[in-house]
Design goal:
The protein is 40% helix and 21% strand. It is built from seven helices and ten strands. Strands 7-6-5-8-9-10 form a six-stranded mixed β-sheet, with helices on both faces. The longest helix is centred in the N-terminal third of the chain and has 18 residues. It is globular.
Length: 215
């Protein structure tokens, strides 16, 4: 059986969809400094990696959500992955907008969705969980039975995990922060000292003491 966790981690690092910069941290919108930046949209422009990711998402849906009837992508990053995965599975798909359109039918959910249908949400990235929970809430309000989420990458932050649990949202990711950091250290993208700093960030993003480690 394919180890999608390690394979996806390797692929994301190989195509530079994941940037690890503990010495030159990125700044999130919240102001928090982060040693990692993940851009899974780059998987769409790398055919071999894209194929591996979509096959992985197919595996997740079949294994963890065998009763799924419809796939719904998150807007916008999850739409392409939902479409390709649904095509491979021979399933219908749609997507959920960030908000209702201001014209036409003013839809928030695009695509046919019947009340009671069993849905899996396809998401590219989960950090604090807020965005995907909003999508799940919109689908539930429309009468869907949301079985859970299939995502490419999750940070595995305590806040995000707690929010998903409180919202009763199951998530299965192809890979996660720990797997990426582990592979990055093994393959020489970062040092062992950097690995410890990254894990410290993951454990408590608001504590920026990891930045001040003397190199």
């Amino acid at each position: 059986m394919t180890d999608y966790k390690e394979l996806t981690a390797k692929n994301l690092l190989k195509i530079k969809a994941v940037f690890l910069r503990p010495d030159e941290p990125f700044t999130w919108a919240s102001g928090i400094k982060s040693p990692i930046y993940c851009d899974n949209r780059l998987t769409l422009t790398a055919p071999e990696v894209r194929t591996s990711v979509e096959e992985g998402l197919v595996h997740v849906v079949k294994t963890y959500y065998p009763d799924a009837e419809v796939l719904m992508g998150t807007s916008t990053a999850g739409i392409a992955h939902a479409a390709i995965t649904a095509h491979l599975l021979g399933m219908p798909m749609g997507y959920v907008r960030g908000s209702n359109k201001d014209h036409g039918r003013q839809n928030r959910i695009e695509g046919k969705l019947e009340p009671g249908q069993k849905v899996v949400v396809i998401e590219d990235l989960i950090s604090t969980g807020g965005s995907v929970i909003e999508v799940v809430d919109a689908l539930r309000e429309a009468g869907a039975v949301v079985l859970g989420v299939a995502s490419i990458f999750t940070y595995g932050m305590k806040k995000g995990l707690q929010r998903l649990t409180e919202a009763d949202v199951k998530n299965v990711s192809l890979t996660d922060f720990d797997a990426v950091v582990d592979v990055a250290a093994k393959e020489g993208y970062i040092s062992c000292e950097d690995k410890a700093r990254l894990i410290a960030f993951r454990d408590d993003p608001s504590d920026q003491s990891w930045i001040k480690v003397n190199k």
